[in-house]
## 1
Amino acid sequence: MEFVVKATEGRSARVFVEGKEVATIGPRGKAMFSVRSESFGDWKVELRDDGEIRPFSAEITCEGKSELALKIRNHLFFYKGAAYLLTGIPEEVRPADHVLGKRHVSRLDSFPFAGLDEVDRETWGRLRLHRGSSVGEVDGASPQEFRVTLSDELSEIGLPLSAALYLLYNSGQGARGW
Amino acid sequence: MVVIKPNRVGPFPFPKSDPEERKKGFSEVEQPYTKEQVMLEADRCLRCGTPVCIDACPVQLDVRGMMDAVANGDFQRAYHRIRETNPLLGVTARCCPQLQGLCEDACVVRWGGQPLSIGMVQRFVADWEQGGSRQPDPKSEAPTGKRVVVVGAGPAGLAAAELLLRYGHSVTIYEEAQSLGGTAWYGIPDYHLPKDVLTYEAERIVAQGAKVIRGVKVGRDISISSLLSESDAVLVATGSRDVKKLNTPGSDLDGVLDGYEFLREVYGAGLESYLNGNRKDLGSEILVVGGGDTALDCARTALRLTQGHVSVLYRRDEKEMPADPIMVKEAQEEGVEFKFLSDPSEYLGKNGKLTGAIVQAMRLGAPDSTGRKHPEPIPGQTATVRCDSVILAVGRGPDSFLAKKEGLRTGPKGAIAVDVRYTTSMARVFATGDATTGETLVVKAMGHGRDAAQRVHEYLAGLEDRHVSLYEQYYTKHTTEDAYQDMLSGREEETPPD
């Protein structure tokens, strides 16, 4: 499924699937954003990890529920027992070819840890050596339009994950406009 | 709508000297931008509202502020914007692999073209300051009367010391070597990082008020308990040192060298000293074993010293190679040969002197305990090659000497075990950098060093329960909604020049 995130003002955005608007993204506090959708439900995305604002980290909650739906720490998350790496280099891509162009969401099939808290300090520093299989692509012809294509295994969290990808890896409106 | 300029000024990734010429000596490979070029390149920056480039920098270098100032020709403002969080500007500009998971990899211009050449712009600003436009140091807070000992003057130790000085603490650095910089001194060749750049920036940190005691190895010449008796806290930043040992038959032959010791011998006392002294005879046929940046550094150093034939043997394939692909290409341009899926199974010799190697062909099998595909030999597929020297650069772990000597609790591979507060098993002793993580990038070690220094400061100031990370401080200052609106309207607070 492809989600197209189009920035509107500041960090706010609208999300489209097959040309139809399905959701909005908007700020609701410090490092906190709402994702509202009739089709995919309402979500809260906080750019925090255990309460601390951290780069490339987010905690995603389905509105009305107390437990986390997804936690991203330093590009890495676990979902349904599998580890996934955002913007890593999947096996089928040569590192030399990865310096430009689209990025990937990789499923790390052989990742030797079962949860974020188990990952040791050395592994955090060498995450990019873990290659994995591409299960998603992130692309954008310009900063305004951000395309996230995810395979079926991530479809249940497709909208909030796409919103998190937009908030973590794209840039809001800048001092020079769009 | 702002128009995106998709291509960098000059060649991608950066201008380089001619490979046939540069391999004859140790002058810099990367060639700097001119003033006109750097202003044009900086003008490509979109001045993003939430700059992902800064998120991707372990020390939160203010890329956006730098680009805005440089595009307007204001190098003084650019310098102060980036010096705020990075005391080794010229060093990191040169040795960060910016396109590999760091600032340039994160630049949103990448979506539609070539990302900003952040390293080149940073380098210009650093060189501008070093080249005669000396700027004042960042301001420090009033003296606190607290004393901190930093063990190790590598990137983590220097970055930590600088931040602690800025907080007003008294800092004493103990360094085993005579030169400052740790691995950045001896482990990064001069063609990549001229040592006058490192010396200038390290000495600037010292000039901020640090006392440096050189030639003293903590754990051997003085104990941690002695250091604690003269200070309020000790921060250990002893880096990586423990070389991985291979049991390949023939490893004890004369001519089989450890890569780190080789680099230390060439660069440790200064390149000129080595070139004018007793140079090791490497011969003309050299094998380098390994797939990381150190293997490349060894290969390109050996090439420059011998003008011989240098081959890099790596047991995995090119896609699995951890070295920066930009550096791999540079080495190939210079004539270094790469042989992937190859691993020496035995070194051959005559009268104790290396004469050759049996090279085993490998293939990638099932993932091992690290999660990466394990290389395994292909039965019956070997080749015997002649060689005069073999340089082993297969990685190294944290320096475990001090932990063993002082009984600090350790984790995997001998790394000093620390909690989220960077505290060790010994009261008032903190640890950071490669000593706690294993070998990493200079800028990542600096980031760890600064984070640990923040924790030490909070401990000394009794603020442990009110911890605010350096990243959260940056985020709060620059990207919350109020700051965002200020930025959009041009009211963003600027770091004053002095």
Note: Chain A touches chain B through 53 residues (CB under 8 Å).
## 2
Amino acid sequence: MRLMHTKIPMIACRTLCALFMGLGFAAAQVPDHPDELQFPRLDFEPPMSAEFLHDLDGIPVYLAPSSEWPLIDLTFTFKGGAFLEEPDEVGLGSSLGVMMRRGGSARTSAEELDERFDFLAANVSTTVGSDRSSASLNCLESNFSEAFGLFMEMVREPGFDAERLRVHLDERVEAFRQRNDNPMSVAFPRMQRLVYGDDHYLAREPTLDTVGAIDGDSLRALHRRIFHPGNLVISATGDFQPAQLLDALRSALDGWQVGESVGDPPAPVHVTKSGLYHTETSQKDLPQGTTMIFARGIQRDHPDAIALTVMNDILGGGGFTSRVTNRVRSDEGLAYTAVTLMRPQVYFPGIFAGFYQSKNPTVALAAKIIMEEIERIRSEQVTAEELERTKNGFIEQFPQRFASKSGMLSTFVSDHLTGRDPNYWRTYREKVAAVDQGDVQRVAREHLDPTNMSILVVGDWDAIEGGDLEGRANMSEFGEVEHLPMLDPLTREPEGERTPTGP
Amino acid sequence: MRELLLALTVAALLGATSAAQNLEVRELVLDNGMTWLLVPRTEEPNTVSAGWVAKVGSVDERPGITGISHFFEHMMFKGTTTIGTRDPAADAELMDRQHAVKARINELVWGQQYDRYKRGEIDDPWDPENDTAELRELRAELGELMEAHRETIVKNEFDSIYTNEGGSGMNAFTSEDMTFYFINVPSNKFELWCWMESDRLDDSVFREFYAERDVVHEERRMRLESSPTGELDEQFDAMFWMSSPYSWSPIGWPSDLNSYTREDFDAYFDVYYRPNNLVGVVVGDFDPDVAVPMIESYFGRLERGPVTPPPVVTTEMPQVAERRMIGDCECQPQVEVRYHTVPFNHADSFPLEIMAEVLNGRTGRLYKGLVEGAEIASSARAGTDHRKHAGYFSFSARVKGDAGPDELEAAWYDELQRLQDEPVSPEELEKVQNQVAADSFRSLQSNGFIRLQLGFFAASGGWRYINEAPGRLRAVTVDDIQRVANTYFDRTNRNVASYTRRAGSAPDDGLASLPPEAQAQVKMMLQQFEQLQDVAQLEEIVGRIESGLSSMPEQKRPAMDYVVEKTKERIERLRSEESEG
């Protein structure tokens, strides 16, 4: 093992210098318009991940010490997650995440481990996500040694206490029962199913059967595949000396067998069938329709990704300055939230989606406005002013991504695990600046096809269908609706046919 | 002896100091009364988290204008004479005309429509479906004026300017006690923030008033009416607070939301949005020697208000009898038990908070007792809410399996009894105290969170709480906890909300009450039987299972009973199909 770099970048100094240079601008008088303000220059170069990277016998370790408060924050991130589950063990991953923390270790009972962590005021968490997993420890520097020892026991040899597992599985069943109660918790999984297909790991949902099959053996098997040094990236910030922490890590990792590194998650095979869909929640008389307008999007490293992000920001991703929010919310008062989202995936194309909740009679009108805006951004160039504002926003906000040490480290770790070019951020602002009006229109035309969009409405169809009092829009304009039966909260099997609620 | 004592005291003090955090805050009060809290912090370079809080919230409202604080917050993003319009003169004229039409609408609704409503002729005086011909015309006229107004409006220019300069995370929130506006700006753009915020405090123009009111109606539908327990929770609050103006939620009653007038707005602004009622908070990468002169020249131009904001004089009436609310919803059965306690920074608020922490967490008494022990709850927690003028302590839990909310309630009274009868163990207290110490540092790890706490505490009663509270929490003794447990938790001081799942929205409970492994087994068996169409064969299977039941282990019987029951139902169905066919 060797220290690759020990240099701490002088970001803080640079900023202060910039501010001091700006002293001459200190406000002697108040200008009439903010356009007249002159700002001191802020020179910023993004920190390079290599400056923080150490190599611990092949395990990458990112360290960013800080002596502000006597705390240490340590995270182990592993490639691998729910995508490794077999179809009959859906939900195993998230139970593994919970049970590692709750189930004790091979040497310490579950109860003792909890008591000790709590007594040491150590915040310890473990999670298994869809394609990445983690274990983290945050505690006072003075308690680090003992807390870290227990943390390593838990990560390397979790106990999966049987009684704790039983209680946890019962809790999951209780949570299942609430899956149809809330419009958002119905709409989002349903959209995932329609986009990725019922069987894809981003869409499939645990049921009584799959959760009932979880036991100590299956948890141990998945733990062995994910939680080993072959999948691991370590990061830490807080009150420590890098050399000392690396020593502590080295001895703690000693003898931990390196398993086979997991591969990339599978791409969905499902072909999204566009259409108008409706489903409902357990509450039949909802006052609002929760609506998603969606299609397959792009992959993170697609050459159009930055131009599409800019396009989406102008269309509906940029909050109050975006077109969809302006028209649906500010002009018409039809929704509190009305946005579009571009959610690229690393390993395969992700989702583009518009989202809003509006009172039943104006669900159709809001959908119509969003479809008009999608059509408009394809058929006309955005204004130079819109484009400049959006690009400036991205460029000016850029330093914030690296402002907090924990935020910076999580960017580095994520890039490391997903194999992003470390130079990506160095030229990020140039790439944003290069997007022009023609690019925005071109990527909108290539990636947003209104004839290929689906609409999913969750709510009281009979109150939504007919549209608004003034007759500005109704749902039949979007084609024939397919009513999707509610899914049984426990089995996720389709429930009975929809019963109309009356006139 | 004396020396030993002294040595012990010094050691204890040193121990306490070494574990205590102290956030250095520079406090500044301008001549117009506006208070400033400044925390230069270079740990997050190149960015500044700035904000200001108006010490006003729904507690300062009255029936007729409930929700106005929150609506006001929305309107503060609509611009000023300089920002947000192409033609200030036309802008003002169009707004005057809209308000005049709306005043006429209000007059008709409050008069005729409310009368028709009271006589039972219409179900909602505000619903456009119930409009008279005159109202319909007026509403159309208002719509046309709003449409015309759009021509002169520069849409969301306030937001655009910030976005263009790299502002991020711009938002605001309204609570019972405060209205807080905040944003992060690049550290070289602090002057922009001073310009924008002092401009809107000096000269806000509330354009798009009526479209924004509809947005707030949608917000209400989303937050309260579309949430499984939203409306019940709102009414539980209203039951809990009898005389206190905490009785209504910050979003207000819908009939009030429809009724605000421009006069209400002007009066509200003059009282509550003047510098003497505001606190600015700046945290991040800035130099106070540069920032303070900017603050003075920009915010110093705001005029002190004509009156001092009136105090909230109505105190909560002491409760004289237990109150209960029994509801049903499309939700997990659940219970909340809530008691009136004390306001922010009250001496007893500290032991009450420690008491809640003894109950909470994975090693807390509620999880161990109700979730893991008795296995009647899927979640359980204690909470405190110490607001500016009054506070409460609450227990809340959701059921597990077949347990009912009443069982959770009874289990809570047992836990409470234990706190009243026995002092908590020194180990439990020490554990919580250690967590208080660690959390006091954790809470100071980000600019945004420091800003939020300083503003929040300043509006609740004093920002120094951020440095003083950890010490006061660490001074709490086991006796203090037992004393407060015996002070605030009488039956006459309690309010209970008990919700059960509405009939017809429940999942199949027979199956769900079985352990997950058994559920999987049962489902597999039933699926296999599903393949069989022969009634005789099915009856034979049922018979075999039933005859084996008595020799089966006790814990397996419920699962088999369920299989038998379901299979018999299926036999019945097959029979009736046969007879119909």
Note: Chain B touches chain A through 104 residues (CB under 8 Å).
